[in-house]
Each structure stands twice: as structure tokens, then as C-alpha cells.
Amino acid sequence: xxxxxxxxxxxxxxxxxxxxxxxxxxxxxxxxxxxxxxxxxxxxxxxxxxxxxxxxxxxxxxxxxxxxxxxxxxxxxxxxxxxxxxxxxxxxxxxxxxxxxxxxxxxxxxxxxxxxxxxxxxxxxxxxxxxxxxxxxxxxxxxxxxxxxxxxxxxxxxxxxxxxxxxxxxxxxxxxxxxxxxxxxxxxxxxxxxxxxxxxxxxxxxxxxxxxxxxxxxxxxxxxxxxxxxxxxxxxxxxxxxxxxxxxxxxxxxxxxxxxxxxxxxxxxxxxxxxxxxxxxxxxxxxxxxxxxxxxxxxxxxxxxxxxxxxxxxxxxxxxxxxxxxxxxxxxxxxxxxxxxxxxxxxxxxxxxxxxxxxxxxxxxxxxxxxxxxxxxxxxxxxxxxxxxxxxxxxxxxxxxxxxxxxxxxxxxxxxxxxxxxxxxxxxxxxxxxxxxxxxxxxxxxxxxxxxxxxxxxxxxxxxxxxxxxxxxxxxxxxxxxxxxxxxxxxxxxxxxxxxxxxxxxxxxx
Length: 510
Ligand code: GLU
Prior knowledge:
mainly alpha, two-stranded parallel ribbon, 20 helices, binds glutamic acid
């Protein structure tokens, strides 16, 4: 079998939606599993829809997720250029082949004439309102113009398009790896535009020509392209490329959290979750759309989460790194029906990954969220704190909320907790704790040793644990909650602990 070659072929018309990332990922996993190549091809022939920055965004997003490109604009490769706007001459040669063998034809109809055609077929009750085997005979094109008229028009520079000559009434069998065999009658198809007089091909022509020239073996793309499949199969046939036609797999849609309808940016805005991998600023309106990266998700968690949208390895396991995913991935097991996206599940994945990531690696990911924060202490200290609070984090951006007191002496105390925990004898008890901590030698200043000494005191004095540890936590952290109290004391250190206890005693008076 030929070497597997797959491509992700986005159009730079805006930021890449998470559904697009999923398409790229499934291509990548498939290539990785079969030791094939993964290509990134930028399909930018529709100049009206070109959005500045989108191309860079796509590459940065794939890079952030850890999807590695084997061939592409930056990576190079034997089949470039990998950007369609740089391949214009190639498409001209190939459209000419279709004109020459009668598979494509010129059409000169104006937008008004096209509207009129659609209106008339509507009025006559015809269900067919497209440019096809029936209507083409009444329009201005290679079928109805004489050779002379045609040449005159072409030479005079009159705008035209080149349409595909779809055969009439043929039952065409198309195959999809996920959906199986589908039979389509060609009379239902439109004579799609393949080329425009601005010298640029449309998506269909450029896509087929490039897949052929780039030796693509499998086309894995979103379900929205399924209706184009019959046309693509016909195009392969018209070029005489049936033998090297790739296999097709159309991935299921991503559905809203309710399970009804396609997941859209608006759902994200309404329910407060990102639908894009990275933050995106619309170059025209300046509007900002949230990204997973900026919202505090780990790239591996994001990747794992989207890998399971529409596919699963057939058991209950859910946590996989990218190598494991590639090993297990099976295109034939991708589901046909839409895949419901759950923002809660996305958070759950992130939490699992935060827990299992080493403190050192987590530090790298957390650092961008610590801008404008004063981190007192070295990296080892930061790592230690990360280790203590990571089980309490869902997003990377939760770190500071959980850990600020490790870096800042509290200046205020939660009033409700003061009321609840500061009793008549608390000041006295805290003074004793102060003395106990003061007596512990620096060398023995470990969590377990501090715990032992404080517990000994509590038991000896027949105090309740709550009456000692709750106010102690309050004056050390300013709030309630947080990691094990003795871990906090040993981490912030003796001097700082004593300072905080004294602060607490003087500031909170009953
Ligand atoms: N340029 C198309 C898109 O934006 C590619 C579709 C395909 O993969 O064939 O999705």
C-alpha cells in the first residue's frame, strides 16, 4: 500500500473553531498511526472571505495543541507550494484539460439572468432551481453560443465562469469510510462553478487538483463537505484519476451542550466557554473571542477532550496522551451521529491533567497567568506551592486564587470566618501556638513535626481541633480552605508564620 498521506485544508476566513481542530487532530492521529504524513494546506482562493491573521492563527493553534505538521508552508515539502493562492498557474492548466475533454464549459450569465432563471423555474413549479442539464440549454454558455460568439466574448474580456458539466441521470455510488456507500442520482446535482474569470479556481477544483498532485490517500474532513462528495468523485473521473482517488471520511458535527443543533460561537458566549483554541481578536470589529489557552486549559487536556468528540476507543478509558491516542485511533470507529460537546467535561479533563502534570511542567503553564503578581521566592518555592494547590485547581487561571497567601501576608481576614472562629480564648490559644512554633528548630521545621507538636498541645490542653486549627488557618491565610494547614506553615516558613500569627492576634480583637 502507498504511504498514507492526509491533509488539513482550512480556509483562512477567521479563527479555527474547535471542530476544525478536531478535524486536524483526526488527520494527524491517522497519519501518526500509519506512519504517514500530515500536510497543512491553506485554501485561500476565495479572496472575498480572506481574513488577515487567520492563517497565522491556524498555525499557532495547531502548534499550541501539539499537532505536528510534516509538510506545509513553514515546514516545506516536495509537493508545494502549500498555499493555493501560490498555485494559480497549476489550476489554469487543469481547468483547460476539463474544457478540452468536454467536462467543463464557459458560462456568461449575469447575476440578474441567473436570478431570472431561478425565478422562472420556481414559477413553473419545477423543483430544480439550479444550473443543470435542464436549465443550461436556455442560458448563455458553451452549449448555446456558437464557437464564434464564444470566442468573441472570451476575447473581449467579458466576465465568465467555468462550470462543471454534470452528467444527466446517472446513479453514482460514492463511498465514505464512516458512513458507508451512498447512491446519488447526478440529475440532482448543480453544474458547480469551477473557475472564475478573475483567474482563480473555486474550492472544488483547487481541492481536487491539489489532493491529486499532493498524493493524498485519505480525505478526512467535516460532515458539511459530504454534499460535495458526488461532485468530487465526478471530477476525479473527468480527469481520469479514478485509480488514485483518495478514500473519504466525513466527521460528525459537534453539537451544542444541549445536544440539539450545531455548536456555535454564540453558545460559547452565552454559556461562558471558549469555542476557539486561542483567543481571537476580530481585525475589523476588534471583538475578542475567548480561547482555551487564555482561559487556562492545558493543551494536552484540550487535545484529549476533542479526540473523544465523535470517537472512543471502545472502552471506558478516557485519559490518553497523543501517542496513546494515535495507537488506538480507528477511523472506522468514528460515529456517524453528531458529537455533543460538554463544557463540564472539558473542565474535568483539564483538572485531571493538572493533577497528573509534574509541578515543574505546570509552572511553565501557570507562569503566563502570573503577570502583575509579585512572586516572592524562587522557582523551587513556586513549584512546591503548585504541588500543594493543584488538586484544587480546575483551570490554570485558578492558581492565584488558591495560592495568593503563599506569596502575600494577609492584610485582611474574612469577616464571617472571624465571627465564626474567633472565640473568647482564641487569642490565648494563638499565643500558645506562637510559642510552640517558635520553639521548633529550623532543621525540624517540617509539616509532620509541626503537626505533631501542635496536636500534642491540643490533646494535652483538651482543646477541640476546630477551635485551634480554624482560627490558625484564618490568620495564616486570611480565609478558610486551602491545603493541609501544617503544609502551609512549613512552606511559608517559621519567620513568616510567626509574623502572621502575631498580626492576626493584634488585628483581630474581641
Ligand atoms: N477548505 C475547506 C475548508 O475550509 C476544506 C474542505 C476539505 O477538507 O476538503 O474546510
